[in-house]
Each structure stands twice: as structure tokens, then as C-alpha cells.
Design brief:
By secondary structure, this protein is mainly α. The protein has eleven helices and no strands. It has two domains: about 55 residues; about 180 residues, no CATH class. Helix 3 runs parallel beside helix 10, helix 4 packs across helix 8 and helix 5 packs across helix 7. The longest helix has 29 residues.
Length: about 250
């Protein structure tokens, strides 16, 4: 029996919904990127400003809030890996990526860093043709990503994006992506990259949410303390992950 026959009708509907959402995310990504660099008043720029506001605005969150709220991001990573079954580039990479987003802005950070990562991914197959050593390959790939990120940041005139931390985190993601490519193949590496970026966006939204900001102002130490308790509870979870339940449903339906 072919693998595509193991999907239930509901699973196919979920897959189509996911594909539609992916298309919407890609279209939104390019629309925001257009608005960031567009100096005129085009229809796309007007639509982005109407829906999202100024895409180049920063978060302006206190550094202490970012520090104390970051353990909540770790809770999200543990939940995604232990309960949902998502595979990411470790525990710290989504958190560091989210921290870079929080320092550079809700839209400018994710869009520019993702664009730099995509440029690095596109350059990797061509670099592979040069038969470089692994160290030289990774070094050249990271240099390309840094150059792309710096060029985009200079064009946007965003000094935060040109600081060392977002550059290092973006380069780290590309390195992890290539390591996953070598170990697990291109498809799995792309999935892990997508889940890592998605999780970083979720962490950014959580840390910058009004509820967490208010909690940080009233009782800042509650955030890391509650994160410790939640991670201990999640760490003792030994049930099936959501991805495994979906796979078993498909096998049972077959």
C-alpha cells in the first residue's frame, strides 16, 4: 500500500488547509518586505500599513522584561517538542531567534532575518559544487548570510539589525540547517527550519503580549518561577505526541 493511501479524508483536508495557510504566510512575507523597502505609496504598502501598522516599528521593551520573560519561551519550546512532537534546532535556537526579533521589531526582524536565511539556503547548493572542506563551506555560507543581512539592514536603515546579536543568531540558524541537511536530508532540514522560525514568532508574540508585559510590571519574578514549574510538569509527560497520534490514526484508518 502506498504511503499516500494511509491518510484519512480529514487528514487530507488538514493538509490542504496547511498548504493554503502556507501560501498566505508567504504572500504576507513578501508584502511586508515590499512595504519595508518601498518609499512610494503603492497599493501593497497601503494594505500592509492598514493591516499591520508601520512594519518597521520597534518593540521598545525593557531589557529586564526580555530577560525575565525568556523562560516562558523555553516553556513553549518544551511544550512543542514534548507534546506536539515538533522538531526544532535545539532548545536555545528558537529562544535566541525570538530574542533577536524582540530587539529588532515585530516585523522587520523576522522578515529581514528570514530573507537572509533564505539567501543562505539558496547559495548552499552552488557552494557545494566548489568541493570546499566542511569548515570552509560553513564559513563561506555564514559570510554570505551576514553580507545579505547587513545589506538589507543598511537598506532599511535599522541599526539594531546591524548589531552583533541578530547577525550571530541568523548565522547560527543557517549552520544548524546545513547540519540537519547533512544528517537527515533536505526535506527534514526544511521542516525543522520552518518549525524553528514559527516557534520563534510564537515566543515573540507571547513575550510582547499585553498580559505578559503587565505581569512583568506587577510581579516580574512570577514569570521565571512559573516557567520552572511548567517545565517540570511538561518534563514528566510520557504520553504520545500529537504528531504520533496523527500517524496512528492514519494507520488505523488503513
Amino acid at each position: 500500500m502506498r504511503s499516500d493511501e494511509l491518510y484519512l479524508p480529514g487528514d487530507r483536508a488538514i493538509k490542504r488547509t496547511f498548504q493554503a495557510m502556507t501560501g498566505l504566510v508567504v504572500a504576507t512575507f513578501f508584502a511586508i518586505m515590499w512595504a519595508l523597502f518601498d518609499n512610494s505609496d503603492t497599493l501593497v504598502t497601503q494594505a500592509v500599513h492598514a493591516v499591520f501598522g508601520d512594519p518597521g516599528r520597534p518593540w521598545n521593551l525593557p531589557q529586564l522584561h526580555l530577560l525575565l520573560a525568556l523562560p516562558l519561551g523555553a516553556v513553549m519550546v518544551v511544550f512543542a517538542r514534548s507534546v506536539l512532537g515538533w522538531k526544532t534546532f535545539g532548545l536555545f535556537t528558537p529562544m535566541l531567534l525570538a530574542l533577536a526579533y524582540l530587539q529588532s521589531g515585530p516585523f522587520a526582524g523576522p522578515v529581514i532575518s528570514t530573507a537572509a536565511i533564505l539567501i543562505g539556503m539558496a547559495a548552499a547548493p552552488f557552494l557545494k559544487l566548489l568541493n570546499l572542506s566542511r569548515v570552509a563551506f560553513l564559513g563561506t555560507l555564514i559570510a554570505i548570510v551576514v553580507t545579505a543581512l547587513g545589506t538589507l539592514a543598511l537598506r532599511l536603515d535599522n541599526l539594531v539589525l546591524m548589531s552583533a546579536f541578530p547577525v550571530v543568531v541568523t548565522a547560527l540558524v543557517v549552520e544548524r540547517w546545513w547540519n540537519a541537511w547533512e544528517a537527515d536530508g533536505r526535506k527534514q532540514a526544511m521542516k525543522m527550519t520552518a518549525t524553528t522560525l514559527a516557534l520563534a514568532l510564537m515566543i515573540q508574540g507571547l513575550v510582547a503580549s499585553p498580559l505578559v508585559i503587565a505581569l512583568g510590571q506587577q510581579a516580574p519574578l512570577v514569570m521565571p518561577a512559573s516557567a520552572i514549574v511548567m517545565m517540570i510538569v511538561l518534563g514528566r509527560y510520557q504520553g504520545l505526541r500529537l504528531s504520533e497520534l496523527t500517524r496512528f490514526r492514519a494507520a488505523e484508518g488503513a
